[in-house]
Amino acid sequence: MFKVRERIKAFDWILISAVFALTLFGLIMVYSASYPLSIDQFNSSTYFIFRQLIYFGLGVLVFAVLMNFRYHYYKKLSPYIIGLSIVLLVLVLALGIAANEATRWVNIAGISMQPSELVKLGVIIYLAQVYSQKQKYIDQFATGVAPPLIIVVGLFTLILLQPDLGTAVLILLVTGVIVFLSGARFRHLAFLGTLSAAVVLFLVFQADYRVNRILAFRDPFAYDDSFGLQLIQSYISIAHGGLTGAGFGQSVQKLGYLPEAHTDFILAIIAEETGWLGIGFVILCFFIIGFRGLLIGARCKNLFGSLLAYGIVFQLLFQFILNAGAVSGMLPITGIPLPFISYGGTSLIISLAGAAILVNISLQNHKDRHHPQSKDIQEQEEENVAFHA
């Protein structure tokens, strides 16, 4: 038997430590970045942090449950997860809450949530399950590669209608990674990549605000009184912080100068108040999460677990890159939040859920190495003979 003491010891504590160090640091920075706006709008300095703490508590509960929930069961739950994702996205379009010229939230039983965050994780589970069972046909486009992508296109369309091109593109990127790691042929990958890039480029030029983001990315100072203002204020935050930062709570840009200071652009406030030391801490934590996650995927003895681990890791890393790139002006602004740190309950819970699944895959890897006669490893090897062939 896999005893409790051994089980606790077998958890990937390096990964867990990095996740919660990042999350707790995020809570501190959400409070610092949000209290001026909180006072201005709600006459209370703790409005935003109080709500974030509630979601953090829920996220910890979800993490504790999922880190002990055998990831193999997601194969059976996959159709229900993807079905729920579709239903929630339809509800957003029908009954969603509008904010900032977009409808991305829905209120269920008094709780506001952003279904597209669930979709990010749901797509990974679905694709990992389907492609792990299509290894005999993975070199065939019509029967192996294409069928699961129909679901992805449907989800992409529903998210695009909110509109939320940033999240839709993120899902395409993660899908591409999973298809590649599933063993699809290069010409199929090249075709899908070219088609996806063409579609995204077409969509960018169909909306003025997206074109404006590209223009601001190229030269924000040419539009300093309009759509280039946010990026310029971000530059000022980063420059003000220097190496060691202005000090906790000492940001000037959060005092109404930098829009979305506690959400999409919280990394700029981190740079301003904690300097490059704080940015280095964030990068280090994401590096540890990425490294441990990739190691977990490589050590997994079945394709489903590997694709699941790789999908979660790349989704988190892509989010970090897209967010950091936007804040620093190295990439166009996409509206992608910073995982574990940005204000937003659904994003925080789903990020913790993804990390918890990684921890469970690591736990099962440990169990398989030290208890090779267990039923788990026999089932995995029978289902995925072609993985290491």
Automatic annotation (TrEMBL):
MF term (GO), any: lipid-linked peptidoglycan transporter activity
Alphabetical keyword list: Cell cycle, Cell division, Cell membrane, Cell shape, Cell wall biogenesis/degradation, Glycosyltransferase, Membrane, Peptidoglycan synthesis, Transferase, Transmembrane, Transmembrane helix
Catalytic reaction list: [GlcNAc-(1->4)-Mur2Ac(oyl-L-Ala-gamma-D-Glu-L-Lys-D-Ala-D-Ala)](n)-di-trans,octa-cis-undecaprenyl diphosphate + beta-D-GlcNAc-(1->4)-Mur2Ac(oyl-L-Ala-gamma-D-Glu-L-Lys-D-Ala-D-Ala)-di-trans,octa-cis-undecaprenyl diphosphate = [GlcNAc-(1->4)-Mur2Ac(oyl-L-Ala-gamma-D-Glu-L-Lys-D-Ala-D-Ala)](n+1)-di-trans,octa-cis-undecaprenyl diphosphate + di-trans,octa-cis-undecaprenyl diphosphate + H(+)
Annotated region (Disordered), positions in chain: 369-389
Gene Ontology CC annotations of this record: cell division site; plasma membrane
Protein name: Probable peptidoglycan glycosyltransferase FtsW
Pathway involvement of the protein, from the record: Cell wall biogenesis; peptidoglycan biosynthesis
GO BP terms: cell division; cell wall organization; peptidoglycan biosynthetic process; regulation of cell shape
Positions of transmembrane segments: 12-33, 53-73, 80-99, 105-128, 140-159, 165-182, 189-207, 275-295, 307-328, 340-363
Role played: Peptidoglycan polymerase that is essential for cell division.
Comp. bias regions, Acidic residues: 379-389
Pfam hit, one: FTSW_RODA_SPOVE
Tagged with keyword Glycosyltransferase: yes
Stated family: Belongs to the SEDS family. FtsW subfamily.
Localization (cell): Cell membrane
Topology of this chain in the membrane: Multi-pass membrane protein
EC number of the protein: 2.4.99.28
Chief localisation class: membrane
Top-level EC class as recorded in UniProt: transferase
